[in-house]
Specification:
Shape of chain A: globular
Low-confidence stretches of chain A: 402-410
Strand order of the largest sheet of chain A: 2-8-7-6-5-3-4
Largest sheet of chain A: 7 strands, mixed
Radius of gyration of chain A: 21 Å
Oligomer: homodimer
């Protein structure tokens, strides 16, 4: 029997995936599980966008252009302009989800052994994509104490080496929900300019910025137009994760040329998903406004409930639909597994993502979790009830006196 | 401005892609171009399958399981059973087109610098996928004189080294249209077994076997169950290239495990495309029978017309919808470009794929072309009229006396 490749054995999996079979098992046994572990919202995909697919008179579902349908790219240009980002259709490449955009960029911008600086905690699958591209992720650590805000220029400069080719950030952030304001991005831009690095920014959560904060796209940054690349996706924006439609945007013509080569190899992005995505861009603001208000409500539920749990340290996240929290436990990985297997409150439990897997630095995040507020407020409250009770009775709870109740920062 | 990676510069493009801008230009100038260069059929996607998408009552287009929807995988199992291939749903992973299946396999089975043996000419994008995976393609040359039939065991053994991890074939073949019978596959299986290699077989054209020949899936080969992997796609079968739904099938549990890790990284295959693909599997045989008959008609048109062209050497292909031909020209690449730019017959010309790009061995295929018979017989005849006239007047035509009229082999 032929063997699996070394890399096939080593490819790093998302940290919470290993809990999935356990969750499946306890669900089969009758326990209800509130899923706050994944970025799969319970919000409906806009009916108007689905209708575009249902109304299509397409007779042949042919390959689209490798860079995506021209009509969709044109509408994306208008969409980005709403955020003050002036780009042309040639500067937009449609991809199979943000995942593919990331893989294209890693390959087109970096060679084997090159380094990319990423603030941690970060979306754990970046590790897998870096593994595929055979590049190294170099972390810059953010602190829960200040709501995981973007580290300053010095922190980035401290880890930049001659092998560093790119900085990769997510704004608003997954997994922390941190919103990066214009000022912080402009400070980062100076580092990018000084070392002439690529700046990849995953902006898939741009629609979800709270407290009246205006989203600032890095496409608006001046003097580093050829360094900036935006990664995009319709998955979260329109609750259309299964459409598998993303994009990358850059003014760097050479990079577009290189990425288009990779795009041509895989022939085309999904055709039906592109029709849906184009339909979504034709809607007025009402869908997105309602969704944003709904997430804002959920955000407040999670924040307020965490605040009241003894020993839990968290903050009010400024964007996306995630928040990170420190729990009064020695090992959050163990706690999350215990939650699924051993705990039950009113016939239910809650599934969270252990924090450690979102860090590249060993030992960090071991007592932290990511909470995705992707359920409606009623379910969220029920999930928080579970969590509150669980933390009271968890055998591995740390009972040291100095733990204060949840601290609001930002 | 940051630079493109070395690999991003070097990634090998499909050989005919460079002709696309020229074709676009002459079309914009008013010339009609018959596209016999691409595997994009003009056949309609089955309306019954499209209807499944239109009738869906899905409210949230969520991520599907990373390995694909359970209901679709179950139907694929029934589909493969029609070809005598007994597999379980766990042995089927749904991918984003065959392209993604190939990439997953290259990574899961081979490490940097490993070798894979491929009969040439082969689908040119395999070079690009091999480049991404950083593995080496080692060709075994097939001959036009015997219709590009599968080389014998000796030919394969001659190029196998300790670095060889896999043999990759396409049956029926793209770009040659050659059909590999059971006997040839069983001979190859002995080589696979002897050296304990992976055997990847791209079976996306399995429905298109002519002259009453029965398709033999390598999933039916005994003694090498853990070596065999089948690559599949709905693109050609249902003329649904834009669905981006493929699959890989293997009984090797370790390989399934490794591939699922890569599948999880990119979250899920396209959701709408999977609904369409599942719908297509619920149809009776009439659609596929009609399509096959139509391709058979086209095959005969191309073969008969090529036969009558002086100096053209070809053969009757046994499967798929391609054929390769040798032209009385010094350089087919130049000829194909000249066809587009300088030639016109009744306001039209024809676009073909130069053969050289389908070979890994330098210097081979320079006077050959691939013809994809993806147009209806009327258009095909018009395209053949163009080709016939063009070959008469092409300035680079070889006028040596020994060139005979098209020779039928097989």
């Amino acid at each position: 029997m032929p063997s699996i490749s070394k890399r096939g054995v080593e490819v790093p999996l998302s940290p919470f995936r290993k809990l999935v079979p356990i969750a499946d098992r306890v669900k089969a046994e009758g326990k209800h599980v509130y899923h706050l572990n994944i970025g799969q919202p319970d919000i409906e995909t806009p009916a108007a966008a689905m209708a575009k697919v249902k109304e299509t008179d397409l007779k042949i579902l042919a390959y689209s252009a490798a860079a995506g349908n021209a009509s969709y790219r044109a509408k994306l240009v208008e969409y980005y302009a709403r955020f003050g980002a002036e780009v042309t259709a040639d500067q937009v490449i449609v991809t199979t989800g943000a995942s593919e955009a990331i893989q294209f960029l890693f390959m087109a911008c970096m060679d084997h052994g090159d380094e990319m600086v990423v603030p941690e905690p970060f979306y754990a699958n970046y590790n897998g994509f870096a593994h595929i591209a055979d590049i190294n992720v170099v972390p810059v650590t953010c602190a829960l104490e200040d709501g995981f805000s973007l580290p300053d220029a010095k922190a980035f400069e401290a880890v930049i080496t001659p092998k560093t080719k790119a900085i990769f950030i997510t704004n608003p952030n997954n997994p922390t929900g941190c919103f990066y304001p214009e000022k912080a991005l402009k400070e980062l831009a100076q580092v990018v300019k000084k070392y002439d690095l690529y700046l990849f920014v995953d902006e898939v959560y741009r629609e979800f910025c709270y407290d009246g904060q205006d989203f600032f796209s890095v496409l608006r940054l001046e003097e580093i137009e050829n360094n900036v690349v935006v990664i995009d996706s319709v998955s979260k924006r329109y609750s259309a994760c299964g459409a598998r439609v993303g994009a990358m945007v850059t003014r760097n013509e050479e990079l577009i040329e290189a990425v288009v080569k990779y795009a041509k190899l895989r022939l085309s992005p999904p055709g039906l998903g592109q029709i849906l995505a184009e339909g979504a861009l034709e809607m007025d603001d009402s869908y997105m406004n309602e969704v944003k208000e709904e997430y804002d409500r959920r955000r407040n539920v999670v924040f307020e409930r965490l605040q009241k749990m003894e020993g839990v340290i968290s903050y009010l996240p400024g964007g996306a639909f995630y928040c990170f929290a420190e729990f009064p436990v020695e090992n959050a990985d163990h706690f999350c597994q215990w939650l699924l297997e051993k705990f039950e409150h009113k016939g239910a439990t809650v599934m969270l993502s252990p924090g450690e897997g979102f860090y590249a630095t060993p030992g960090l995040g071991v007592n932290q979790v990511r909470i995705a507020y992707v359920l409606n407020p009623t379910d969220l409250h029920a999930a928080m009830d579970c969590l509150e009770e669980a933390l009271k009775v968890y055998p591995g709870r740390i009972k040291v006196g100095q733990l204060a109740a949840g601290t609001a920062v930002i």
